[in-house]
TrEMBL record:
ATP binds at E33, N37, D73, T161, R322. Pfam families: HATPase_c_3, HSP90. Residues 213-229, 619-629 have a biased composition (Low complexity). The keyword Cell inner membrane does not apply. GO terms for molecular function: ATP binding; ATP hydrolysis activity; ATP-dependent protein folding chaperone; unfolded protein binding. Signal peptide: none annotated. This is Molecular chaperone HtpG. Belongs to the heat shock protein 90 family.
Amino acid sequence: MSQGLRATEVDLGGLVTVLASHLYSTPLVALRELVQNGHDSLTRRRLEDPSGQNGGRITVRGDRSRGTVSVEDGGAGLTEPEIHAYLATVGTGYTRLLREVTGSDELIGAFGLGFLSAFAVADEVTVTTTSHREPTAGHRYRSVGGEQYSVEPVPARAPGTLVELRLKAEHAHIADEAVLRDVLTRYCVLLPVPVHLGDDPQPLNAVPVPWRQDPAQDQAQDPARAQASADPHAARMEFAARFGRRFEPLAAFPVTPREGSDATGLLWVQDSATYGTSDNRDLAVYLRGMLLSEDARDLLPRWAGFIGGVIESTRLTPTASREDLQRDDHYRAVQEALADAVVDGLYETARLHPGAWRRILARHGQELLGAALCDDRLFTLLADDVPVPTSQGDLTAGALRAAGGGTLHIALGTSGGFEEMLYRAMQVPIARGDRYAVLPFLRRYGQLRGCRVVELGSEDGNRALFRDADRPLAADEAAWLAAALADDGEQLTPARFAPAELPLVLVPDREAELKQRIEDDQADARIPGAALRLARAFTARTDGSVRARLYLNLDSPAVRRLLGAYRAAHPGTATAAGLLRSMKVIMSAAGGESRGDLTAALAGLGAAVAALTADTGTTANTTTANTDTSTDRGEATA
Ligand SMILES: Nc1ncnc2c1ncn2[C@@H]1O[C@H](COP(=O)(O)OP(=O)(O)OP(=O)(O)O)[C@@H](O)[C@H]1O
């Protein structure tokens, strides 16, 4: 076996295909790479010939009928040896060498790969170029597929380069002006050189970049920019409105360098009706003016689903495709800086732009509740402002507390049911603890402001609301009431509560409900094992046999009369009890709690009305009918 060193073979054809077609997520990236080469070439020319032409531009043209796109620059151009050494050599570029020599951080290219992406969209690529160092010589590079190429002399042109693509049939749409405008506006918005589409005299990237504005310099150079930098808030809003494709901005605030992060840019609150679980984070990252990542949402905090933005940073390291970022220390530093910038920006908005702040609270209330729990400063900012959904519409925690006489009332169930009715009767708003983040937010608010929190549906909460009856009922009375009023799984609990007009309240045991749901979900195998074990640990103390507590209000005149009638063996006792029971079942059905037999309850109601309006002679029959209904359910009767 040979021990000598051998050269690794490269299958150039395969490599070109991989690089051209699989490195980038979208073939449109080819446009970005060609515009970037134009920019670097203009920069090269300025660095090599500082006294020469100033400015320079890039022009992109599309011709749908011919199926071509061209990118032209007035930059440094290439000599023939440079064509061979840099343009046609994969992995080598003059741009990187130039950066190393000059230390310029304006140059974008680094890998010597970008040009190959032209072959992802084009069958044939032609490059016609004249170097500013040899202004009398012209060269034309031509390649079909990228694997082989030719270079021939052509008449000299003004220094610079014209790259022409003959598009593959499947990419012919790229030549459409609308497509080019859309893609290039986004790619080039931060490029310092003007990029023109066709003969349009207005560059695609003419929008003033608010975080790059220097009032003194702008005043000297451009009145429009000077105006923009005089009103930074208006300039930010305009940039955000133009850039944010999906949503209108409600407020925009700057990203500034801070410890470990050089990121600058703009963040804005999107005017989208988002919900707790929606993630509309939208962040574009630019490196030296070129779009690097269209969707860098992970740089934004997870809770900031309503934030859009643009940042630029020279410390974030791109992957070779320049579409994603290395997850290194700088990445994490920028993540922290952006979280701070969002919180600072929200503070600034609350302080300086109350109208916008109100709209943000109204639009993103639910998400902000969750966000407040993830960030202490945000919690402090939002604690008294953010709306909480309640039975009386959205209220701030402070208003909820004031209306509850200093207590925050929170329902744990999903529907109003009797709980809500109780509170309606008391005219106390009750927070919807089943909604996203409401319960933990209010618990924390209660701690912060030192106020009582009653969670209705939990044992503790119920105890706080329904005072124990001070004198227990006689055993036979309690047993009779339970039989006459409670359905299966309901535990009758004599109590005292306001308002006195309310005779009874059925409060489902939310923990038992949860247990039931977990068992059902498990039957459907929807809960993964680990989650199920956790949930079970939580519901272990609930045996599940008591699904609801039926609180009987001993302060209620109706209940007192009923007990008096029972003690006096009044003939209407069973009718009256049946009426209350029917009312309970009907109301819980109306509240979305299907407990008890609704049909029997409705029939019971009819029977009671009949009994109450009957002649004395027929009362006994009706009472018997009601008694029969009870017996059918296997319960004791009076
Ligand atoms: N329009 C142009 N004008 C002058 N030189 C060019 C032009 N386009 C490409 N080149 C030369 O060809 C080289 C290779 O270009 P290519 O786009 O493949 O890589 P790059 O720009 O150097 O790096 P990257 O892969 O990071 O974009 C460049 O470094 C530059 O020297």
